[in-house]
Amino acid sequence: MRRIIVWVAFVWLGYGTGVHADQQTWNVFPDQFESSIIEDQTTRGVKRVVTVEINQPLSENRLKAMARSIKDSKRQYDMMWIWFRFPEPISTGGMSWATVTFEGNNLKEVEINGPTRQQILDAYRFEDDPNRDVRQVWISFDYVGKRYAFIVENDLFYFETRYLSNLSSPSVETERITASSLPLSSLRRFQTEEAKEYAEYGLPDNYWRVDSENRLRGMTNGKLAYVAYPITPGESRFPTAKIKQVSGDDLCKQDLQCWGKRHEVSAKAPCIAGVEYILDRVTAYEWTDGLLESKFPRFIWKPGKKDEGILIYLGDSMKIQNTIGGWIPVRYECDYDPNIQKVLDIRIKL
Questions:
Q1: Element of type H or E holding 15
Q2: pLDDT given for residue 293 in this prediction
Q3: What is the pLDDT of residue 219?
Q4: Which of 77, 115, 149, 264 has the highest CB neighbour number within 10 Å of its CB?
């Protein structure tokens, strides 16, 4: 059994790895990468170690140009190519490595190890607000998992991932992909992508998005972004386990910021109408919010109803008239069930 190990150093904008099936030095992009091969005397066969260093940020156009040079090349690369790209300058001070196991000429397993989510999180800062504490918003961008796709003769070959605890090194997360026997000679490219949607998880507008009509659907979740050149998805002729689909609704429903922001618009009109309906029958009132201000700028889980996804939208942009003609500020609360898009209760408090 042969094993190919790829060590990847985290650098400014991203990191990438590439491996040949033979023992020649990997030299696809000599101006971007340094690579080397070592013998590992502790195991049978030869292990290939490629040290990758990217010295400057890679623009989207440059990424596509580099990928296209592989696609358009006359040479047939019997290789595995893994590409990662950070959306912003970041350094975790750690290492990531991938172990690719072959039996004969058949791919058997891919195992990827790297710094934990928390380590990456500690180093990450949002482009539009560098002083923001990323821990406050991380849950909105929580890790779903990666989708892995081999490009085999223009077809997609998906693998299911599973996550393993690493007791010997708690600061390392391990992903393992177990594949059916796949002839390495048929392998052309190995692509990874985050399984998250832009709109559902509130990424800033200045993040690079993937055109789902022209490319595999995928987008960064605030941690990693990676995509190669446009391809046309097709059904694989190879039998394989399908990637586990994670419901975006289920993930968002676990996160107050994601769930509350998603349903803010649908809750606005009925909640306003509910407040006005009550006050119309009691006293005069005036809204005090500005033209571009929200009447319900805050939201919380309804106590005891988090699992059901029921929210309370809160605001204080109102004053009411008392019995002697004076005006006093009030607070108001709107219980809203996004599942049925219905107001459950309205409360107005002095």
A1: strand 14-20
A2: 84
A3: 26
A4: 149
151-155 long-range contacts (CB < 8 A, ≥24 apart) are 151/188, 151/189, 151/190, 151/191, 151/231, 152/182, 152/186, 152/187, 152/188, 152/236, 152/238, 153/186, 153/188, 154/231, 154/232, 154/234, 155/234, 155/235, 155/236, 155/237, 155/238
Do 83 and 112 meet the contact criterion of CB atoms below 8 Å apart? Answer: no
C-beta separation of 47 from 38 below 8 A: yes
Please name the residues in contact with 226: beta carbons below 8 A apart, sequence gap of 6 or more: 14, 83, 84, 85, 192, 193, 194
Query: pLDDT band at 337, cuts 50/70/90?
Result: very high
Pairwise CA distance, residues 81 & 112, whole Å: 13
Phi and psi angles of residue 83, each rounded to the nearest 5 degrees, phi first: -125, 125
Which band of pLDDT confidence, cut at 50, 70 and 90, is reported for residue 334? Answer: very high
Name the β-bridge partners of 106.
103, 183
CB 350 within 8 A of CB 330: yes
Mean pLDDT of the chain: 50
Residue ranges of domains in the chain, CATH in brackets:
2-247 (no CATH), 263-349 (3.10.450)
Q: What is the pLDDT of residue 83?
A: 31
For residue 19, count other CB atoms closer than 10 A to its CB.
21
Residue 296 in tokens: 């319900």
Has residue 226 got a pLDDT over 60? no
Return the number of other C-beta atoms located less than 10 Å from residue 251's C-beta: 20
* Contact criterion met (CB below 8 Å) for 336 and 307: no
* Cβ 226 vs Cβ 83: under 8 Å: yes
pLDDT at 94 over 80: no
Q: Give the lowest-confidence range in 21-35, 115-129, 279-293.
A: 21-35
CA neighbor of 77 nearest in space, from 15, 21, 33: 21
pTM of the model: 0.34
